[in-house]
Amino acid sequence: MLMVFGLIAVIAVRGFGHFWTPALLQVTWTDESGSAETLLGRVLAREKIADHLRTGDGNNIKNNKPIQVLLGTANRDLASDTYRWLPEELLHAATVPADALIIERNRRGDFYGYPVALVHQGEVVLAAADEKFSEELTNYLQRYRLLQKQLHELERKQLAPLSEAMQTLAQQQNVVDKNGANASAVYRQQESEEQHAVFQQEYDSLYQQRAHWLAELSKDGLQVRTASGDELEIPLADILRVTWPNRMSLADRITDYTEKFVLFVSSAPRDANTAGGIFPAIFGTVVMVLVMSVLVTPFGVLAAIFLHEYARQGWFVRLVRISVYNLAGVPSIVYGIFGLGFFVYIVGGSIDRLFYESSLPAPVFGTPGLFWAALTMALLTLPVVIVSTEEGLSRIPVSIRHGSFALGATRTETIWKVVVPLATPAMMTGLILAVARAAGEVAPLMLVGVVKLAPALPIDGSFPYVHLDRKIMHLGYHIYDSGFQSANSDGTRSLVYASCLVLLLLIVMLNMTAIRIRNNLRRKYRDALE
Q1: Which Gene Ontology molecular function entries are recorded, alphabetically (predicted)?
Q2: H/E element, 269
Q3: CA distance linking residue 244 with residue 25, whole number of Å
Q4: How far is CA 67 from each of CA 64, 84, 282, 494, rounded to the nearest angstrom?
């Protein structure tokens, strides 16, 4: 219990700390060559210097101090080293400049520095020294966000459906070319070409409108200066949020904290999963778990009922039970390889050849996707559901069965109307364990449908609304990718803790929902027996 709660406490403290905006410190650092450099950043960690970096008397060789701090300076498009380990003594001489700002960007990470001016097509519109600069910058950013939202709606609701319709027409034309031309086919081809011309004309018009909006988004920028004196211009279209952390009061920090948390759980990741939110990963995890639950529950329950109630007990049934127990101990990566080979290539490839011939050689179901990921996880968690259900069936007293028989019920009526309902809490227990296992797995999902960045959600407003063939994101894989595949490990440390915290909260919410259902069922049938 101490280990579990201790681990949860560490994840919670560091995960919630990801959304806190600390003050920016400006320090002057002199390296071993004697050259001085001015740095602006925030303290990310403190630690004692290792023993091998100290002299025999316990002092540090370089700075005679046993404590060092990690200073994150951002601006990775301007500096190769954005994280510096510095002696803590330097912080005593650090300043806290009031005009220092943090700019969250769509690309190249955050920027730490000072504002210079608002510019329009290279010309200064408003200097940073003006009293209305902060207010005007906020108004500019709001206008740009509205324009970006309109551009996104244009691409998602108009350009994307047109592109998909044109692709469908092209696939139909391929089928006609393969099967040969007749009078009916020629007529359909002419009709298809006319429809394609209409689609192309509408697409060109929308594309020109999109190009116009993109040109508008590139006109205005924010001229900024780094702590070392370098100046650059950041397009306003590339800016997500601007904060002045050294001006913020406690109430402002709490408001900013809440806004960052909401953005974290409601926005998409950016910068190769090193920044931004995790909403697609949350959504993909929940959808995959729900689809897996729909698949594994009936198969696991029916298999357990057959083994316990209908099958003749003998060596073959014992062999089946031993096989089920052994399946629970098979490494998860083996399930992933099996799912890739059997479900994706054999089953999915056969579906494509039978129903999606016009799309070949581009696969539809013959490639990893949501359905194959859920089916693989259902196979992985099937032994847990079977064993739990069988345990629940074995705990039903024999007297209840005999009482049902005495009242004239048949064997089938006794099993399905008396025994199975009483064993429902045990079935829910198996489902709870299956959900917890599936939500935390990573290795098999990497092979059967989970990707680093998914272009679209598996559920949206376009027909057929639920797209089982799409690839998805998963919180477990997002944590693995951010923590172990990122070149910026120091910068993603707090992000990994925050993602772990959300994953734990998600598993707890799913389990609490299942536990509540189980308790209600248990109370219902206990009252019925009494």
Answers
A1: phosphate transmembrane transporter activity
A2: strand 269-270
A3: 12
A4: 9, 14, 38, 21
Contact, 280 vs 269, CB < 8 A?
Answer: yes
| pTM score | 0.85
Residue stretches of the chain with pLDDT short of 70: 50-65, 172-191, 489-490, 526-530
Reference 454, options 437, 478, 422; nearest CA is 478
In terms of DSSP H, where are the helices of 22-132? none
Asked if the structure places residue 138 within a domain, the reply is yes
Say yes or no: 209 and 329 in one domain: no
pLDDT digits (tens, 9 = 90+) for 432-449: 888 888 888 888 999 998
Going by C-alpha positions, the residue among 456, 467, 444, 473 that lies closest to residue 282 is 473
The answer as to whether 238 is a domain residue is yes
Instruction: Extract the tokens encoding 222.
Output: 């924010």
> Cα dist. 137→131, 148, 157, 236, 259 in Å?
11, 16, 30, 9, 19
Q: Percent helix, strand, coil in the chain (nearest 5)?
A: 60, 15, 25
DSSP 349-391: HHHHHHH-GGGTTS-SSSS--HHHHHHHHHHHHHHHHHHHHHH
Number of domains present in the structure of the chain: 3
